[in-house]
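Justification of resources, computational component.

The compute hours requested in this renewal are based largely on the per-chain cost of generating structure records like the one below. Each record pairs the submitted sequence with a full structure-token output. That output is archived, and it is also reused by downstream analysis tasks.
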Amino acid sequence: MAGAVLGTADWYRHFGTIDAPGSSACYADWSLHIADDPALIARIDQWPHNKRQPLLLLAAARYLGAKVSPYAEFRNFLDEHWADVSRTVLSRATQTNEVGRCATLLPSLAAISAAERKPLALIEVGASAGLALFPDRYGYEYDDGTTVTRLAPEPRRQPAAPEPPVLRCTVSGAVPLPDKLPEVVWRAGIDLNPLDVGNDDDVAWLEALIWPEQDFRRERLRRAIAVARENPPLLVAGDLNQQLVSLAGRAPADAALVVFHSAVMGYLSADGRSRFRSTVQELAAGRGCHWLSNEGETVIVQADGSSVVPEMAAGRLRGNFLLLHNGRPVAITGPHGQSLEWLQR
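The structure output for this chain reads:
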């Protein structure tokens, strides 16, 4: 996570140069201007370090009504609403519940279920509202440039069943696309502050975390929320290192347990990541589980103490995520689930 090592202005400059371009011209422009705005940087620096991240400030402003606009207009909005922006930043977190990431996790989940010959039990750490816990309830389109592979959930019998989102993903390499969606018999999540799909304020915050120009992400979020509202997942509030083992004990013994996370480890300290790695390994040795890690450049502390995967060339991830299965790199993924580059043959 860039902010862990960069000063605040550099953090915003990195976001505006690396993360936002190609996804949000508005956020790229605002972030670069903020980086060159010493007075605003000084205000941001009054917040705790973990509250200074660009997306949190930008989402808070959007949550409070900031419109896509030139920076001068946005800056005026911040001046006029700074007390509310600050309260929102301090009370909220970047709990982006990006359902699109299910498209990059699905091939691994299906392969685990097939290899174990069991249905799945899922635990997501850093689950937000738990929308990524429904990979079996969404539709998928995988495009390799020549062929589009489509997967759809079984039709629901209820007459008013919500229309599921369709997650589109560009694929390359020998991606093991399944013939059908895996069966999920149990799903649960852990978050410091779980969001409730039945709470309008929480839903509004989830929508504010979607980048301004990405209406397609906003629409699929709404469809995923409708799916989750039918049968909300079990969400446990607390620290992932403290809650994981006990929550795993509640999973059905005849299911293949998968612990997974996306864009979560950057919010933990190096010690917290190291402890999590040990916790998952102990769980695998005891109860038995698979571990899917889908993270950015500071993926997770490795056995040798490094924070990036040693086999990856410098700059290879640049803005993308790395998917690991039980600590072994299997794919490079788009941060919003838009792409999947399989590394294995």
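The two ends are 29 Å apart (CA to CA). Residues 2-91 form one domain.
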